[in-house]
């Protein structure tokens, strides 16, 4: 294999592939991570590790990284137009922090390809005290510009707690090693406990990285990690291979059989379902007849009275959202709602259970199966029913936090 790194960079013989970051609990992909491989003069693929090794040897790491960023954003621009909420995860090496701040190279390329900053996540992994200081500046600089910051590969290496506390990321990627047989290792057990505590209280999203087996999927679900990434979830894909609905459906068909005891218990609970149906009817009657400009006020009254409601949104008869999701901020802490799959005006629910089952049945209320909420990382149940607003009929949708509902019912 001929690895001429100078020609590789000059001729831009780098191929960008993408790997899914997906929720095991909802039909939702948070984003895709950009991966790279080279193409030799012989037409053979060159692993990323080899490319970086050669680039370092020839003092071309900066040029290589700039090329990867350029090509990743160019390729992503072909996807983001049809998947507007999708996030692009880009790895930024620690030696690039200062360059990125001084030159605004990434912002310039993003502007060139019309990729919104809020769709870009920087994967960073500072490895020593000096690079942590640079990473803190980097995170502050780009967060002000609406980019997201992800701490990569937490649990591998040192200074894990320092990174989290000082950088205050939007997302943390946990190495899957730290979820395997965690009960046998006090350090990993307590590290995971701390990470989960911090994430729940500060609204940080968690991703399990390196998921390679069904056992890894089970560990991720059982540890209440919102998202996962790895070769079991999806192989690296070209832009042409990314059909999110099909990929998500295929993935969920593989893990369909895995439910926690709590989820089974909820599904079999007629009492809870009856309560949810009654509450949904009551909410619809409170909102019924209201004009759209009064919905927020009415919803605030509902949130005060019923603190187990995470959020509320309205659909039209075709299954499209007609208002921005109204979130119960007083009860549930949300740091970065776009990351947590909070839908806004125009979101398409026409193929989702909360709409299709109501429309295709003789029922006037539908209650979904339990799932993990991305807002709170707790088990939730959705419900939907018809409501009249102004002079038109719509569909009211609710997310109900199960644990808070139980506390409300039995307090």
UniProtKB/TrEMBL annotation:
Domain EAL positions: 1-250
GO terms of molecular function: cyclic-guanylate-specific phosphodiesterase activity
SMART domains assigned to the protein according to its UniProt record, in alphabetical order: EAL (SM00052)
A matching Pfam family: EAL
The organism's place on the tree of life at top rank: Bacteria
CDD domains from the UniProt entry: EAL (cd01948)
Alphabetical list of SUPFAM superfamilies matching this protein: EAL domain-like (SSF141868), Sensory domain-like (SSF103190)
InterPro entries recorded: Cyclic-di-GMP_PDE-like, EAL_dom, EAL_sf, Sensor-like_sf
UniProt protein name: EAL domain-containing protein
Organism of derivation: Helicovermis profundi
Native organism taxonomy: Bacteria, Bacillati, Bacillota, Clostridia, Helicovermis
């Amino acid at each position: 294999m001929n690895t001429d790194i100078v020609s590789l960079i000059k001729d831009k013989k780098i191929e960008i592939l993408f790997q899914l970051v997906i929720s095991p609990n909802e039909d939702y992909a948070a984003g895709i991570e950009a991966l790279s491989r080279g193409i030799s003069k012989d037409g053979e693929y060159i692993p990323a590790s080899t490319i970086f090794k050669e680039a370092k040897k020839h003092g071309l790491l900066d040029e290589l990284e700039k090329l990867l960023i350029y090509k990743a954003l160019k390729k992503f621009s072909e996807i983001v137009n049809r998947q507007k909420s999708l996030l692009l995860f880009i790895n930024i090496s620690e030696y690039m922090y200062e360059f990125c701040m001084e030159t605004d190279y990434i912002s310039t390329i993003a502007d060139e390809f019309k990729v919104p900053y809020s769709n870009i996540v920087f994967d960073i992994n500072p490895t020593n005290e000096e690079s942590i200081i640079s990473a803190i500046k980097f995170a502050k600089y780009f967060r002000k510009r609406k980019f997201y910051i992800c701490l990569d590969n937490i649990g591998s290496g040192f200074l894990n707690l320092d990174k989290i506390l000082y950088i205050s990321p939007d997302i943390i990627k946990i190495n899957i090693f730290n979820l395997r047989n965690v009960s046998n290792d006090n350090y990993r057990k307590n590290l995971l406990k701390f990470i989960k505590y911090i994430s729940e209280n500060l609204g940080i999203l968690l991703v399990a990285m390196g998921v390679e087996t069904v056992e890894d999927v089970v560990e991720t679900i059982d540890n209440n990690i919102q998202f996962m990434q790895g070769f079991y979830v999806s192989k690296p894909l070209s832009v042409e291979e990314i059909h999110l609905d099909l990929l998500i459906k295929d993935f969920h068909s593989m893990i369909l059989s895995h439910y926690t005891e709590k989820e089974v218990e909820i599904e079999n609970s007629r009492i809870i379902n009856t309560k949810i149906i009654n509450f949904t009817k009551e909410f619809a009657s409170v909102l019924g007849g209201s004009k759209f400009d009064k919905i927020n006020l009415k919803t605030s009254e509902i949130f005060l009275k019923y603190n187990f409601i995470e959020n509320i949104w309205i659909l039209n008869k075709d299954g499209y959202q007609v208002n921005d999701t109204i979130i119960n901020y007083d009860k549930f802490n949300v740091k970065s709602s776009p990351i947590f799959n909070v839908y806004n005006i125009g979101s398409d629910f026409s193929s989702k259970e909360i709409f299709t089952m109501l429309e295709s049945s003789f029922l006037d209320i539908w209650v979904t199966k339990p799932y993990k909420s991305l807002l709170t990382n707790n088990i939730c149940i959705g419900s939907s029913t018809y409501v009249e607003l102004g002079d038109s009929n719509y569909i009211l949708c609710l997310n109900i936090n199960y644990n808070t509902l139980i506390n409300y019912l039995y307090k």
